[in-house]
Amino acid sequence: MLREESALRAHGITLGAFICFGLMSPLCKWAMESGLVSGVSMAGFRLCGAALLFWAVSPVVPRQRVERGDWLPLIIMSLCGMGINQFCYVLGVQYTSPTNACVATTSTPVFTFILSAVFLHAAVTLRRVAGLIIAAAGALVLILGSQMEGGRSGSPVGDAICLFSQLSVSFYFVFFSGVIKKYHPVVLMRWLFLISAVLTAPLWLHEMLSMPWKQLGPAEIWGSAYVVFFGSFISYLLMIVGQRHLEPATVTAYNYIQPVIAAVVGISLGVDALTWQKVVAVICIAAGVWAISRRSQAQ
Questions:
Q1: Quick count: other Cβ atoms within 10 Å of Cβ 192?
Q2: Mean pLDDT computed over 100-118
Q3: How many whole angstroms separate alpha carbon 135 and alpha carbon 141?
């Protein structure tokens, strides 16, 4: 009974993490809708805010000293997993729809498989190749659909930027799994967010300082606050707990609720529109990821 309750709690926590992720893109878009807060400024808010929050909770986790040989990998990880990934994602949300941005996040396992196959010689089977083709078709439908529909349905440029952000984080997962497992998640996150905030400061600092702070309204303030606190800090903490108790494939499955949440909230806020292309894209990418990630019976 206790084990069932623990599993149920882990599922609830993981669900909460992906609900936070799913709400982030429409609320981020809502905050940037007026043009007072740009995607560059929002990226700066996210990186700096998350860094401060993770350092604030550091005293309650075990102390760990980063080994000298791990500093260079940490710097590269901070750029791939935080700096480029989160900077490009928020920038992409500025130009595309919240649902499109969330659909793009489901492509991470596809990029991870490609990198693993090319650089780590991961097994390439017919099923995985078929999954890759199906997932790529879904991404293509998403981008071409945005180009044809226009308006609130999305933007090919924004979609491409969001997809690039997922390619960046795939490098983080493929090449640095050893370092990821070596340190406590909070210790790792505090350094990754801090390093990425410092390294990307030349990109966002001037724009953030020159922002018309006195003109910011509730949408800009509360939307930005959500992105920092729930969309970055709380979601990562919940994800860490969920990953300790659930299989990776189970955690990945929750990723597909993001586009649904983003579509519902985005449409209600007037910053998104639901199209058949988005539905087809979600189905194709989900089917492709399932084919790529599923273990064969022989394994």
A1: 27
A2: 81
A3: 10
Six token digits for residue 219: 């949408």
pLDDT at 115 over 70: yes
Considering 110-119, 168-177, 182-191, 224-233, the range whose residues carry the highest mean pLDDT is 224-233
